[in-house]
Amino acid sequence: MCDIKDDYLSGKALAELLGVSTMTIFRWEGNPRLNFHSPSRVHGRKFWHRPVIVEWMKARAVQRTPGARSLAMSNALEDNAQR
């Protein structure tokens, strides 16, 4: 059984996982071309469902060309797989 805290990420935790700033997350939310997952809101705070974000990361890794960001994303995927 998974702990609910492990299934959802705050904006800060998501930014750390993806290797980007929280402002980048905000921008991604407003860009429909990225198909970025909409967060759930709890008491006005945003939380992203980890399994959905992992699937989004995998889809983006396939679409992107190799580079520093995709390496960071690959590392994040590997770290997440170990959980």
Task: Please give a structural write-up.
This protein has 83 residues and is α+β, with helices and mostly antiparallel strands. It has a single domain (4-81), classed as Orthogonal Bundle (Multidrug-efflux Transporter Regulator, Chain: A, Domain 2). It has five helices and three strands; from the N terminus they run H-E-H-H-E-E-H-H. Strands 1-3-2 form a three-stranded antiparallel beta sheet. Helix 4 packs antiparallel against helix 5 (68-81). The chain is globular, with a radius of gyration of 13 Å.
Question: What is the topology?
Answer:
Elements: H1 4-7, E1 8-10, H2 11-18, H3 22-29, E2 40-42, E3 45-49, H4 50-63, H5 68-81
Summarize the structure.
By secondary structure, this protein is of the alpha+beta class. The chain contains 5 helices and 3 strands; from the N terminus they run αβααββαα.
